[in-house]
Amino acid sequence: MTISHFFRSALGASLFLTAGLTPSLAAAASARTAINYGVTLAGFPIGTANLAINLSDGGPYKIDASAKVGGLIRLISDGRGSASSSGKLGSSQVRPTAYTLTSVAGKKPQSVQMALAGGNVTALQLQPDLPPRKDRVPLTDANKHGVIDPLSAVLVPVTGGQALDAAACRRSLPVFDGAQRFDIKLSYARTEQVSGKGYAGPAIVCSARYVPIAGHRPSRSQTKFMVENRDIELWLAPIGETHVLAPFKIIIGTQIGRLTLTASRFGGDAD
User: Fold this and answer.
1) How sure is the predictor about 36, in pLDDT bands with cuts at 50, 70 and 90?
2) Mapped to the 3 state alphabet, what secondary structure does 77-114 carry?
């Protein structure tokens, strides 16, 4: 992983690896909440990431995310960006209708604008377009059906019983981020105790595997590394009194060290 990938990895950790965590919807009161993450690489602080979530049971939701890489890494490269997603909480899953991403990493801008309906992409604008490469697996129309955008799935509704149940980890997640179609395969690892402003208590830890489908380049060393990566975890905790989970911590092993997002604030009204 090169320096120019740091920012996108930090933002992607919250927008991309959490994608598709959508068990069936449970009763949950309206909620406005904020989650602030510190981002470290190999134990050194490199930036921050933030989520602002507005949701209502059976109604519309909106999620805004932002991230910034700074600290010592700014001497080599910096990055910043924001993303938003909106849709409706349906009876069995999150139903996104719009997703946008704007980022700059290493002075290279990127933007995604995507509209969805019924799990299918209905409009897409990606700037810049993916450059043609002989080894890139081509995207097809079928790759844009039955998917969820990378940010909507930050919401993890759970049904009845205990909100923190291992079943939240037992799923395969179909993700389309505007450039790649991939699955994230989750499995239950363990339960941990966490503590931060707004929440202290148990978190369900899911192990994650990256499975590329289309839009990727199989010959790239980064792709090969991520396919074989066994050091990816999502730590899920409940949002307030609701039956909705969100990531308290995200861990991604990289080629130059472990990338970690840890919540310093998990709850309270979003600004």
Assistant:
1) very high
2) CCEEEEEEEEEEECCCCEEEEEEEEEEEECCEEEEEEE
